[in-house]
Design a protein that fits this description.
There is one protein chain. The protein has about 350 residues and is an alpha/beta fold. The chain has eleven helices and ten strands. The strands form two sheets. A five-stranded mixed beta sheet has the order 3-2-1-4-5, with helices on both faces. Helix 2 runs parallel beside helix 3. The protein is globular and about 60 Å long. It starts with a strand and ends in a 29-residue tail after the last helix. About 55% of the residues are buried. The structure holds 5'-O-[(R)-(carboxyoxy)(hydroxy)phosphoryl]adenosine (KG4) and zinc ion. The site of zinc ion has 5 residues, from helix 4.
Protein backbone atom coordinates (compact mmCIF):
# COMPACT_ATOMS: atom_id res chain seq x y z
CA UNK A 1 0.00 0.00 0.00
CA UNK A 2 1.44 3.37 -1.09
CA UNK A 3 0.28 6.59 0.56
CA UNK A 4 1.18 10.21 -0.16
CA UNK A 5 1.29 12.34 3.00
CA UNK A 6 1.07 16.14 3.20
CA UNK A 7 2.02 18.23 6.25
CA UNK A 8 1.29 21.99 6.52
CA UNK A 9 0.03 22.53 10.09
CA UNK A 10 2.88 24.78 11.22
CA UNK A 11 6.02 26.11 9.53
CA UNK A 12 7.18 23.04 7.61
CA UNK A 13 5.88 22.42 4.10
CA UNK A 14 6.33 18.67 3.68
CA UNK A 15 5.32 15.72 1.53
CA UNK A 16 6.30 12.08 1.54
CA UNK A 17 5.42 8.71 0.08
CA UNK A 18 5.39 5.76 2.46
CA UNK A 19 4.79 2.09 1.73
CA UNK A 20 3.02 -0.16 4.20
CA UNK A 21 3.37 -3.89 3.61
CA UNK A 22 0.62 -6.38 4.48
CA UNK A 23 2.59 -7.43 7.59
CA UNK A 24 2.52 -3.83 8.89
CA UNK A 25 6.12 -3.01 7.99
CA UNK A 26 6.67 0.57 6.81
CA UNK A 27 9.20 1.98 4.33
CA UNK A 28 9.76 5.66 3.55
CA UNK A 29 10.16 6.08 -0.23
CA UNK A 30 10.61 9.85 -0.11
CA UNK A 31 10.44 12.56 2.55
CA UNK A 32 10.75 16.18 1.40
CA UNK A 33 10.67 18.84 4.13
CA UNK A 34 10.99 22.54 3.43
CA UNK A 35 11.35 24.58 6.61
CA UNK A 36 10.04 28.14 6.63
CA UNK A 37 12.06 28.89 9.79
CA UNK A 38 14.14 31.55 8.03
CA UNK A 39 10.99 33.47 7.06
CA UNK A 40 9.78 33.55 10.68
CA UNK A 41 13.16 34.01 12.38
CA UNK A 42 12.93 37.81 12.55
CA UNK A 43 9.66 37.53 14.51
CA UNK A 44 10.91 34.99 17.08
CA UNK A 45 8.02 32.66 16.30
CA UNK A 46 5.73 31.42 13.54
CA UNK A 47 3.59 34.14 11.94
CA UNK A 48 0.39 32.36 10.78
CA UNK A 49 -0.25 34.60 7.77
CA UNK A 50 3.33 34.26 6.49
CA UNK A 51 3.16 30.50 7.03
CA UNK A 52 -0.08 30.08 5.07
CA UNK A 53 1.21 32.11 2.12
CA UNK A 54 4.51 30.22 2.06
CA UNK A 55 2.65 26.88 2.01
CA UNK A 56 0.54 28.05 -0.96
CA UNK A 57 3.63 29.09 -2.90
CA UNK A 58 5.68 25.96 -2.45
CA UNK A 59 3.44 22.98 -1.62
CA UNK A 60 2.89 21.77 -5.20
CA UNK A 61 6.67 21.76 -5.83
CA UNK A 62 7.27 19.85 -2.59
CA UNK A 63 4.66 17.23 -3.53
CA UNK A 64 6.11 16.91 -7.04
CA UNK A 65 9.59 16.44 -5.55
CA UNK A 66 8.29 13.72 -3.18
CA UNK A 67 6.62 11.87 -6.08
CA UNK A 68 9.76 12.09 -8.25
CA UNK A 69 11.99 10.91 -5.42
CA UNK A 70 9.68 7.93 -4.84
CA UNK A 71 9.67 7.26 -8.61
CA UNK A 72 5.86 7.24 -8.75
CA UNK A 73 2.98 9.03 -10.39
CA UNK A 74 -0.37 9.63 -8.65
CA UNK A 75 -1.78 6.67 -10.61
CA UNK A 76 0.27 4.22 -8.50
CA UNK A 77 -0.60 5.45 -5.03
CA UNK A 78 -3.43 3.96 -2.95
CA UNK A 79 -4.39 7.01 -0.92
CA UNK A 80 -3.74 10.68 -0.22
CA UNK A 81 -3.31 11.73 3.41
CA UNK A 82 -3.09 15.28 4.75
CA UNK A 83 -2.84 16.68 8.25
CA UNK A 84 -6.33 18.15 8.76
CA UNK A 85 -5.43 19.67 12.15
CA UNK A 86 -4.75 20.63 14.85
CA UNK A 87 -2.62 23.55 13.74
CA UNK A 88 -2.54 27.01 12.19
CA UNK A 89 -5.76 27.03 10.22
CA UNK A 90 -4.44 28.83 7.12
CA UNK A 91 -1.76 26.21 6.58
CA UNK A 92 -4.11 23.33 7.36
CA UNK A 93 -6.56 24.60 4.72
CA UNK A 94 -3.76 24.72 2.11
CA UNK A 95 -2.62 21.13 2.77
CA UNK A 96 -6.06 19.57 3.08
CA UNK A 97 -7.47 21.35 0.01
CA UNK A 98 -4.47 20.25 -2.05
CA UNK A 99 -4.94 16.65 -0.87
CA UNK A 100 -8.62 16.79 -1.77
CA UNK A 101 -7.79 18.03 -5.27
CA UNK A 102 -5.28 15.22 -5.84
CA UNK A 103 -7.68 12.63 -4.40
CA UNK A 104 -10.48 13.84 -6.65
CA UNK A 105 -8.46 14.04 -9.86
CA UNK A 106 -6.54 10.79 -9.31
CA UNK A 107 -9.67 9.05 -7.91
CA UNK A 108 -7.93 7.92 -4.74
CA UNK A 109 -9.26 7.76 -1.19
CA UNK A 110 -8.59 10.75 1.08
CA UNK A 111 -7.41 10.30 4.65
CA UNK A 112 -7.73 13.36 6.94
CA UNK A 113 -5.02 12.75 9.52
CA UNK A 114 -4.87 14.22 13.00
CA UNK A 115 -1.34 15.67 13.33
CA UNK A 116 -1.04 14.41 16.91
CA UNK A 117 -2.06 10.91 15.83
CA UNK A 118 0.72 11.05 13.23
CA UNK A 119 3.29 11.73 15.99
CA UNK A 120 1.63 9.04 18.12
CA UNK A 121 1.88 6.32 15.45
CA UNK A 122 5.44 7.13 14.27
CA UNK A 123 7.13 4.42 16.42
CA UNK A 124 5.12 1.83 14.50
CA UNK A 125 6.72 3.08 11.27
CA UNK A 126 10.25 3.21 12.67
CA UNK A 127 10.23 0.33 15.18
CA UNK A 128 7.03 -1.71 14.57
CA UNK A 129 6.01 -1.01 18.19
CA UNK A 130 2.88 -3.01 19.18
CA UNK A 131 -0.04 -1.42 21.09
CA UNK A 132 -0.51 -0.39 23.86
CA UNK A 133 2.32 2.03 24.60
CA UNK A 134 2.81 5.18 26.62
CA UNK A 135 3.57 8.25 24.53
CA UNK A 136 5.33 11.39 25.71
CA UNK A 137 4.60 13.97 23.02
CA UNK A 138 6.44 17.26 23.37
CA UNK A 139 6.55 19.83 20.59
CA UNK A 140 6.14 23.56 20.10
CA UNK A 141 2.37 23.35 20.53
CA UNK A 142 1.82 20.24 22.67
CA UNK A 143 3.04 18.56 25.82
CA UNK A 144 1.05 15.43 26.57
CA UNK A 145 1.33 11.96 28.04
CA UNK A 146 -0.98 9.63 26.15
CA UNK A 147 -1.98 5.98 26.39
CA UNK A 148 -1.90 4.77 22.76
CA UNK A 149 -4.16 1.70 22.73
CA UNK A 150 -4.80 1.37 19.00
CA UNK A 151 -5.34 3.42 15.84
CA UNK A 152 -7.89 6.07 16.84
CA UNK A 153 -7.85 4.88 20.46
CA UNK A 154 -6.08 7.39 22.72
CA UNK A 155 -6.46 8.32 26.37
CA UNK A 156 -4.75 11.48 27.54
CA UNK A 157 -3.15 10.94 30.94
CA UNK A 158 -1.55 14.35 31.36
CA UNK A 159 -0.96 17.68 29.65
CA UNK A 160 0.48 21.14 30.25
CA UNK A 161 -1.66 23.68 32.04
CA UNK A 162 0.18 26.57 30.34
CA UNK A 163 3.13 26.54 27.89
CA UNK A 164 4.29 23.58 25.82
CA UNK A 165 7.90 22.50 26.47
CA UNK A 166 9.01 23.43 22.94
CA UNK A 167 7.33 26.80 23.40
CA UNK A 168 9.29 27.28 26.65
CA UNK A 169 12.52 26.50 24.73
CA UNK A 170 11.51 28.99 22.04
CA UNK A 171 10.67 31.73 24.57
CA UNK A 172 13.91 31.10 26.46
CA UNK A 173 15.85 31.42 23.22
CA UNK A 174 14.10 34.67 22.34
CA UNK A 175 14.79 36.09 25.79
CA UNK A 176 18.48 35.21 25.47
CA UNK A 177 18.79 36.58 21.93
CA UNK A 178 19.04 33.17 20.26
CA UNK A 179 17.32 32.38 16.94
CA UNK A 180 13.98 30.65 16.37
CA UNK A 181 13.28 27.73 16.76
CA UNK A 182 15.04 27.81 20.09
CA UNK A 183 15.40 24.12 20.99
CA UNK A 184 18.60 23.23 19.13
CA UNK A 185 20.46 26.46 20.09
CA UNK A 186 19.47 26.29 23.75
CA UNK A 187 20.54 22.63 23.80
CA UNK A 188 23.95 23.40 22.26
CA UNK A 189 24.64 26.19 24.77
CA UNK A 190 23.34 24.11 27.68
CA UNK A 191 26.06 21.54 26.91
CA UNK A 192 28.71 24.20 27.56
CA UNK A 193 27.02 25.83 30.57
CA UNK A 194 27.02 25.35 34.34
CA UNK A 195 23.48 24.50 35.47
CA UNK A 196 24.24 24.78 39.20
CA UNK A 197 24.91 28.53 38.93
CA UNK A 198 21.17 29.30 39.04
CA UNK A 199 18.45 27.72 41.08
CA UNK A 200 15.28 27.53 38.98
CA UNK A 201 11.90 26.11 40.05
CA UNK A 202 10.52 22.73 38.97
CA UNK A 203 6.72 23.30 38.95
CA UNK A 204 4.31 20.38 39.57
CA UNK A 205 7.00 17.98 40.79
CA UNK A 206 5.51 15.17 42.87
CA UNK A 207 1.87 15.83 41.87
CA UNK A 208 -0.31 12.72 41.57
CA UNK A 209 -1.57 13.58 38.08
CA UNK A 210 1.09 13.67 35.33
CA UNK A 211 0.47 17.27 34.25
CA UNK A 212 3.04 19.93 33.38
CA UNK A 213 3.52 23.64 34.00
CA UNK A 214 6.31 25.63 32.39
CA UNK A 215 5.38 29.28 32.82
CA UNK A 216 6.85 29.65 36.34
CA UNK A 217 10.18 28.29 35.12
CA UNK A 218 10.15 30.70 32.20
CA UNK A 219 9.46 33.69 34.50
CA UNK A 220 12.18 32.64 36.96
CA UNK A 221 14.65 32.40 34.10
CA UNK A 222 13.71 35.87 32.88
CA UNK A 223 14.22 37.35 36.36
CA UNK A 224 17.68 35.74 36.66
CA UNK A 225 18.62 37.02 33.20
CA UNK A 226 17.46 40.54 34.08
CA UNK A 227 19.35 40.41 37.40
CA UNK A 228 22.73 39.72 35.75
CA UNK A 229 22.22 41.68 32.50
CA UNK A 230 24.06 42.51 30.27
CA UNK A 231 24.62 38.84 29.45
CA UNK A 232 27.98 37.45 28.38
CA UNK A 233 28.20 34.28 26.26
CA UNK A 234 29.07 32.38 29.47
CA UNK A 235 25.96 33.78 31.20
CA UNK A 236 23.79 32.66 28.27
CA UNK A 237 25.28 29.15 28.34
CA UNK A 238 24.81 28.90 32.13
CA UNK A 239 21.19 30.08 31.88
CA UNK A 240 20.51 27.57 29.08
CA UNK A 241 22.07 24.80 31.19
CA UNK A 242 19.99 25.74 34.26
CA UNK A 243 16.81 25.89 32.15
CA UNK A 244 17.45 22.55 30.49
CA UNK A 245 18.34 20.86 33.80
CA UNK A 246 14.99 22.03 35.21
CA UNK A 247 13.14 20.81 32.08
CA UNK A 248 14.77 17.38 32.31
CA UNK A 249 13.90 17.07 36.02
CA UNK A 250 10.29 18.03 35.24
CA UNK A 251 10.06 15.59 32.33
CA UNK A 252 11.58 12.73 34.35
CA UNK A 253 9.19 13.22 37.29
CA UNK A 254 6.06 13.77 35.20
CA UNK A 255 6.69 10.88 32.78
CA UNK A 256 7.50 8.56 35.68
CA UNK A 257 4.11 9.47 37.15
CA UNK A 258 2.49 9.04 33.73
CA UNK A 259 3.88 5.51 33.40
CA UNK A 260 2.53 4.66 36.85
CA UNK A 261 -0.96 5.94 35.91
CA UNK A 262 -0.77 3.99 32.65
CA UNK A 263 0.07 0.76 34.48
CA UNK A 264 -2.82 1.25 36.94
CA UNK A 265 -5.38 1.74 34.20
CA UNK A 266 -4.18 -0.30 31.24
CA UNK A 267 -1.51 -2.71 32.50
CA UNK A 268 2.06 -2.81 31.32
CA UNK A 269 2.87 -0.72 28.23
CA UNK A 270 5.02 -2.30 25.51
CA UNK A 271 7.24 0.80 25.54
CA UNK A 272 7.74 4.40 26.55
CA UNK A 273 7.73 6.37 23.30
CA UNK A 274 9.04 9.91 22.89
CA UNK A 275 7.83 12.05 19.98
CA UNK A 276 7.63 15.68 18.86
CA UNK A 277 10.46 18.17 18.30
CA UNK A 278 11.56 18.21 21.95
CA UNK A 279 12.17 14.45 21.78
CA UNK A 280 15.19 15.18 19.59
CA UNK A 281 16.89 16.77 22.64
CA UNK A 282 19.69 14.52 23.88
CA UNK A 283 19.33 15.46 27.57
CA UNK A 284 15.57 14.88 27.47
CA UNK A 285 16.12 11.53 25.75
CA UNK A 286 18.67 10.48 28.38
CA UNK A 287 16.19 11.40 31.14
CA UNK A 288 13.44 9.38 29.46
CA UNK A 289 15.79 6.41 29.06
CA UNK A 290 16.35 6.53 32.80
CA UNK A 291 12.61 6.51 33.53
CA UNK A 292 12.01 3.63 31.09
CA UNK A 293 14.88 1.59 32.56
CA UNK A 294 13.49 2.07 36.07
CA UNK A 295 10.03 0.92 34.88
CA UNK A 296 11.51 -2.03 32.99
CA UNK A 297 10.13 -1.02 29.59
CA UNK A 298 12.03 -0.14 26.41
CA UNK A 299 12.40 3.53 25.51
CA UNK A 300 11.72 4.21 21.87
CA UNK A 301 12.38 7.51 20.13
CA UNK A 302 12.10 7.90 16.38
CA UNK A 303 15.19 9.45 14.74
CA UNK A 304 15.23 13.26 15.18
CA UNK A 305 14.19 13.90 11.55
CA UNK A 306 10.97 11.95 12.19
CA UNK A 307 10.37 13.60 15.60
CA UNK A 308 9.99 17.05 14.08
CA UNK A 309 7.19 17.71 11.59
CA UNK A 310 7.38 15.93 8.23
CA UNK A 311 5.18 14.27 5.62
CA UNK A 312 6.25 10.67 6.32
CA UNK A 313 4.48 10.58 9.69
CA UNK A 314 1.28 11.86 8.02
CA UNK A 315 1.59 9.31 5.20
CA UNK A 316 2.18 6.52 7.72
CA UNK A 317 -0.85 7.47 9.87
CA UNK A 318 -2.84 7.60 6.61
CA UNK A 319 -1.60 4.12 5.69
CA UNK A 320 -2.52 2.70 9.10
CA UNK A 321 -6.02 4.16 8.73
CA UNK A 322 -6.40 3.04 5.11
CA UNK A 323 -5.39 -0.51 6.09
CA UNK A 324 -8.37 -0.49 8.51
CA UNK A 325 -10.71 0.94 5.87
CA UNK A 326 -10.83 4.33 7.61
CA UNK A 327 -11.09 7.01 4.92
CA UNK A 328 -12.74 10.44 4.78
CA UNK A 329 -15.06 12.06 2.28
CA UNK A 330 -14.16 15.23 0.41
CA UNK A 331 -16.41 17.31 2.69
CA UNK A 332 -14.11 16.84 5.70
CA UNK A 333 -13.22 20.16 7.37
CA UNK A 334 -9.83 21.49 8.45
CA UNK A 335 -9.58 22.06 12.20
CA UNK A 336 -7.47 24.45 14.27
CA UNK A 337 -8.30 22.43 17.40
CA UNK A 338 -8.69 18.66 17.32
CA UNK A 339 -7.98 16.80 20.57
CA UNK A 340 -6.85 13.19 20.12
CA UNK A 341 -9.64 11.90 22.34
CA UNK A 342 -12.16 13.03 19.73
CA UNK A 343 -10.97 10.29 17.38
CA UNK A 344 -12.76 6.98 17.63
CA UNK A 345 -11.33 3.50 17.24
CA UNK A 346 -12.46 1.43 14.25
CA UNK A 347 -15.44 -0.86 14.93
CA UNK A 348 -14.45 -4.34 16.09
CA UNK A 349 -14.65 -6.98 13.34
CA UNK A 350 -18.14 -8.50 13.40
CA UNK A 351 -19.34 -5.72 15.73
CA UNK A 352 -22.13 -3.21 15.04
O1 LIG B 1 7.19 18.71 16.46
P1 LIG B 1 7.73 20.01 16.01
O2 LIG B 1 8.69 20.04 14.87
O3 LIG B 1 6.60 21.00 15.61
C1 LIG B 1 5.44 21.20 16.33
O4 LIG B 1 4.46 20.48 16.07
O5 LIG B 1 5.49 22.11 17.20
O6 LIG B 1 8.40 20.71 17.29
C2 LIG B 1 9.03 21.96 17.21
C3 LIG B 1 9.43 22.36 18.61
C4 LIG B 1 10.00 23.78 18.71
O7 LIG B 1 9.42 24.42 19.81
C5 LIG B 1 11.49 23.54 18.93
O8 LIG B 1 12.13 24.56 19.67
C6 LIG B 1 11.49 22.24 19.68
O9 LIG B 1 10.45 21.48 19.10
N1 LIG B 1 12.77 21.55 19.52
C7 LIG B 1 13.61 21.29 20.54
C8 LIG B 1 14.76 20.71 19.96
N2 LIG B 1 14.58 20.64 18.62
C9 LIG B 1 13.35 21.16 18.37
N3 LIG B 1 13.48 21.50 21.86
C10 LIG B 1 14.52 21.13 22.65
N4 LIG B 1 15.67 20.59 22.17
C11 LIG B 1 15.84 20.36 20.85
N5 LIG B 1 16.97 19.84 20.39
ZN1 LIG C 1 4.31 18.23 15.29
Amino acid sequence: MLVLGIETTCDETAASVVRRDADGKGTILSNVVLSQAAQHAAYGGVVPEIAARAHVEILDHVIAAAMVEAGLSFRWIDGVAAAAGPGLIGGVIVGLTTAKAIAMVAEKPLIAVNHLEAHALTPRLTHGTPFPYCLFLASGGHTQIIAVRGVGDYVRLGTTIDDAIGEAYDKTAKLLGLPYPGGPDVERRAERGRAARFSLPRPMLGRAEPDFSLSGLKTALRLEAERIAPLSETDVCDLCAAFQAAVVDIVVDRVKTGLARFAERFGRPTALVAAGGVASNKAVRAGLQHVADAAGVPMIAPPPALCTDNGAIIAWAGAERLALGLTDDLEVSPRARWPLEQLSPPPAPGGP
